[in-house]
Automatic annotation (TrEMBL):
InterPro entries, A to Z: LipidA_mod_glycosyltrf_83 (IPR050297), RgtA/B/C-like (IPR038731)
Chief place of localization: membrane
Record keyword ATP-binding present: no
GO cellular component: plasma membrane
Transmembrane intervals: 102-122, 153-171, 183-199, 219-239, 307-326, 332-350, 355-372, 384-402, 414-434
GO biological process, alphabetically ordered: lipopolysaccharide biosynthetic process
Protein name: DUF2723 domain-containing protein
UniProt GO MF annotations: pentosyltransferase activity
Species of provenance: Lacihabitans soyangensis
Keywords: Cell membrane, Glycosyltransferase, Membrane, Transferase, Transmembrane, Transmembrane helix
Domain Glycosyltransferase RgtA/B/C/D-like, chain residue ranges per copy: 89-229
UniProt xrefs under Pfam families: PMT_2
């Protein structure tokens, strides 16, 4: 009964935060890409040029049937070959439920909710502990980044679910269920993970590393090698003949452009893309570490983004850790504790945040300590494997984006969404660490109460910031977005259109990257594409792209009168 009571509570919390206000903001750029790609349409109209070059075209022309090659080429030319699994599911989802903003985002929210449920059930099954299971699910249910990503039509939440399920089968095989069926399911799940997004390769990498350090595995080599060979061949096909064949060129071009933007922004410290200086990269990396969980959400900013203050928190942790290891040597123990208290008193202005940081360090420490103790009992091996995989998934994504920033010279990768795949594992790691910390001392219970009470406001602020469209974790818009402008314009067109009318769509607007990098003015087909997504597939409304108009959508009447339908006003309504 307790098992399902806690699960019901988690479902209620997670559902409220994930299914609320799904359609109160229009789609932003990446979501529009998803909507086009899931319908086999290239962003920018690469496979629709013959349509747009007609004297007039119609929604029926726009929605002409697409083949598999169209779907592969669509993601190859706009999403460097990622998201294909999610796009395929979304395509059929839209066939059933339409393409309203609420509908397409609902799918992401469902995957996010399922991930919270799986984290809880998976943790309970492995650790046999309701506290660990509930804490893990709770940390993920309230994670602001996870909530934000559940509100966008993008593949991230599906990735989180897939990598967690792949880890479940990885562990299931070690628990003795080494039937060929489980190896096949594991191999397929890993393949789907990597097709969905390349950064998901960090999960099978963590599995491989843990496998190498796990005992009693001789009988598993063949199965896991077979799974690895299958996925190597799958990726070989994908990067050479599938939708990922342009991926490396796409990433190279993207990095070159972002480096140029960073060089242009050299005197703009608040710019989204900046040059990778040692100080800036260090600060952004530490912020990613702290913001990886609600446990320390916003802590780096409260420490004034100061490396000195972070060093103070860690110095106190090392002193207390020393006291933990030398508690049998009374004089040394007392000296270390006194030194920690003095350092805390000297920095009393940030005392509360130092305490939270140290609780975080000790929670992580107690989780990692379990790994290095390498429990010998067979019953503990699943716990060792899950904690080890979770620890690696806490570390590897941050190391990956750190390396990417240093290698490419700009900070684009040092953003929260690029480490999102770690979120289910971080929740499990910290849930397990908190439980071990609580067993360490009676004081730990009161410290955890203090942490969660203190973190209530920062976490609430971050969640509410997202709903207000002012979140640095995912998307920040000024002014805040309104409900989908393209859907609004399409509705107005259908209400006002008469048989003799012609729809004129702006084609003269120049996107930001075109303004910065294009050598000459190009026709913009994006407004025509996004608008036609919301017009009936069998409609014969005649449309024309006006290359001299930047922002306004008109219905031109038979008598020559132009009726204004919508004005995008530059970037104001183009998200």
């Amino acid at each position: 009964m307790r098992k399902y009571g806690l699960l019901f509570l988690l479902i209620a919390i997670a559902s409220f935060l994930r299914f609320s206000n799904l359609d109160n903001r229009g789609l932003f750029t990446d979501e529009k890409f998803t909507l086009l790609n899931a319908n086999g349409i290239w962003v920018g109209g690469g496979n629709q040029i013959d349509i747009f070059n007609k004297p007039f075209f119609t929604p029926q022309d726009f929605w002409s049937p697409k083949n598999v090659e169209d779907y592969f080429e669509a993601i190859a030319h706009s999403d460097f070959g990622t998201h294909i699994v999610y796009n395929g599911l979304l395509h059929y989802w839209m066939e059933l439920f339409g393409n309203s903003d609420y509908s397409i985002r609902f799918l992401s929210a469902v995957f996010s909710l399922l991930t919270v449920i799986v984290v809880y059930l998976f943790s309970l099954e492995v650790f046999k502990n309701h506290t660990v299971a509930f804490l893990s699910g709770f940390l993920l249910a309230l994670d602001p980044l996870n909530i934000a990503q559940s509100h966008i039509a993008r593949s991230y939440t599906l990735s989180f679910l897939l990598v967690l399920l792949a880890t479940y089968y990885f562990l299931e095989i070690f628990r003795g269920n080494k039937k060929s069926r489980n190896f096949i399911i594991y191999a397929v799940l890993v393949g789907l993970c990597m097709l969905n997004h390349y950064l998901n390769f960090l999960v099978p990498l963590s599995h491989g590393l843990v496998f190498l350090f796990t005992k009693n595995k001789k009988h598993l080599w063949f199965g896991f090698i077979s799974a690895a060979v299958f996925n190597v061949l799958l990726m070989l096909y994908w990067f050479n003949w599938g939708g990922g064949y342009l991926a490396m060129n796409f990433l190279k071009d993207k990095n070159e452009k972002h480096l140029k933007l960073a060089q242009l922004n050299i005197n703009s410290p608040e710019a989204a893309v900046q040059l990778s200086t040692p100080a800036l990269v260090t600060k952004k990396t530490i912020e990613l570490v702290f913001d990886s969980s609600i446990f320390t959400q916003g802590l780096f900013l409260r420490l004034n983004s100061g490396l000195k203050n972070v060093a103070v928190t860690f110095a106190i942790f090392l002193l207390l850790l020393g006291a933990y290891y030398f508690k049998s040597k009374q004089k040394l123990y007392i000296s270390l504790v006194v030194a920690a208290v003095v350092l805390l008193a000297v920095n009393h202005a940030i005392m509360e945040d130092i305490i939270i940081a140290n609780c975080f360090y000790f929670v992580v420490f107690f989780a990692l300590e379990f790994i290095f103790k390498r429990p010998e009992e067979t019953s503990s091996q699943p716990q060792f494997i899950l904690v080890a995989v979770s620890a690696l998934m806490f570390i590897l994504p941050i190391l990956f984006v750190l390396n990417d920033a240093l290698k490419n010279g700009h900070t684009t990768s040092l953003t929260h969404r690029y480490i999102g795949v770690a979120s289910p594992f971080v929740a499990i790691l910290l849930g397990f660490g908190i439980n071990r910390f609580l067993k360490f001392s009676k004081l730990a219970f009161f410290l955890m109460i203090f942490v969660f009470l203190h973190q209530y406001q920062p976490v609430k602020f971050e969640i509410m910031s997202y709903f207000a469209d002012k979140s640095n974790l995912n998307a920040w818009f000024e002014p805040a977005r309104v409900p989908n402008p393209y859907a609004t314009a399409a509705k107005s067109i259908l209400e006002k259109y008469q048989e003799s009318d012609t729809l004129y769509i702006p084609g003269g607007y120049q996107e930001f990257y075109v303004q910065v990098f294009a050598k000459e003015k190009v026709v913009n087909y994006n407004d025509a594409q996004y608008l036609n997504l919301y017009l009936p597939k069998k409609s014969n409304i005649p449309e024309k792209i006006d290359v001299n108009e930047r922002d306004k959508v008109f219905l031109k009447k038979g008598n020559g009168e132009k009726l204004l339908i919508f004005d995008f006003e530059g970037t104001k309504y183009r998200y």
